[in-house]
Write a structure and sequence with these properties.
Blueprint: H1 2-22, H2 31-36, H3 39-49, H4 56-71, E1 86-92, H5 100-110, E2 114-120, H6 126-130, E3 137-141, E4 148-153, E5 158-163, E6 169-176, E7 179-187, H7 196-209, E8 214-219, H8 227-236, E9 239-240, E10 248-250, E11 253-255, E12 258-262, E13 266-270, E14 281-285
Helix pairs in contact: 1-3, 1-4, 3-4, 7-8
């Protein structure tokens, strides 16, 4: 029995280590990004396993894997960054939102200069009209069903706004303190086996085209350490604004789905659900 328990323990620890390592392989196959969602719990389990007897070389290997799991995630949760000079509010509306008026009030009270919205569909499109007096400059990219994404601003857009070729990025340029800034709203599908990778590639292609500083906000349906999110930041020259917190609850599991990126990051606080299934995110972004 003792040998059986040791064998089960070894298989369990090996499985946690393999999940962590596979989660770094998102550039090789989109399944890697899906497995990266388990990096924190698998890393913590590997750390806990070090309290039990194991061979020295095995202990060293498990410790290294756990170290990389924690190193690539935990720093995103610690502390706050300095406030920046652009205030942005982002929100996944939820197609059946029945508290649009309260949400509009919260956005107005936040003092946000720009707003990025996701899941803008026929059922809640009236929200754009509701908030138009405060944000008269609006760019909506319609994709499939309720997956429209929008950028709203208090000041006029510069040039022609853009939409990605595939769901789902909306981009519009504004002028801030004499500088031109691209403000983009992102809503990607759920990760593999869904069409997340195709949408992420379309997002990267659009960001490669944009000239000048970019800020990005929205519902990525993936965690910020996933390969697809890192590729988007590399293409746009941005950093994660923090601290990162869960914004969506999936059957009791807290998920880190809504992020904000800017050239030098920024300070993030979180708003109430207000009829949605996602928390709102208010960011004060450092444009560099």
């Amino acid at each position: 029995m003792k040998n059986l328990l040791r064998g089960v323990f070894a298989v369990f620890v090996l499985g946690c280590c393999l999940i962590i390592l596979a989660g770094f392989a998102g550039q090789l196959h989109p399944l890697g990004d899906s497995l990266s969602l388990l990096r924190i719990p698998a890393g913590l389990l590997c750390l806990a396993s070090l309290a039990f007897p194991m061979q020295r070389i095995v202990r060293a290997g498990v410790a290294v894997v756990a170290f990389f799991a924690i190193l690539t995630t935990a720093p995103l949760f610690w502390g706050t960054q300095s406030d920046g000079n652009l205030t942005l509010y982002t929100k996944n509306l939820l197609y059946r939102n029945s508290e649009l008026s309260s949400l509009a009030d919260d956005i107005r009270a936040s003092g946000a200069e720009v707003v990025t919205l996701q899941e803008v569909g026929r059922a809640n499109e009236a929200f754009l009209t509701m908030i138009e007096p405060d944000y008269p400059f609006q760019h909506l990219c319609r994709f499939v069903g309720g997956s429209g994404v929008a950028v709203l601003a208090k000041t006029p857009f510069v040039g022609t706004p853009k939409c990605s070729d595939h769901r789902g990025v909306a981009a519009a340029q504004i002028q801030k303190d004499g500088n031109l800034i691209w403000v983009t709203s992102v809503h990607l599908p759920w990760p593999y086996p869904y069409a997340h990778e195709k949408s992420a590639e379309a997002a990267v292609a659009l960001f490669d085209e944009l000239e000048g500083p970019v800020v990005i906000a929205g519902d990525f349906n993936i965690f910020p350490w996933a390969s697809s999110a890192r590729r988007i930041r590399a293409a746009s020259g941005t950093m994660v604004a923090g601290p990162v917190r869960p914004t969506y609850n999936l059957y009791g599991a807290p998920l880190f789905l809504d992020h904000v990126y800017a050239p030098n990051g920024g300070n993030v606080t979180y708003r109430e659900l207000l009829g949605s299934d996602h928390l709102g995110v208010l960011a004060r972004l450092d444009l560099g």
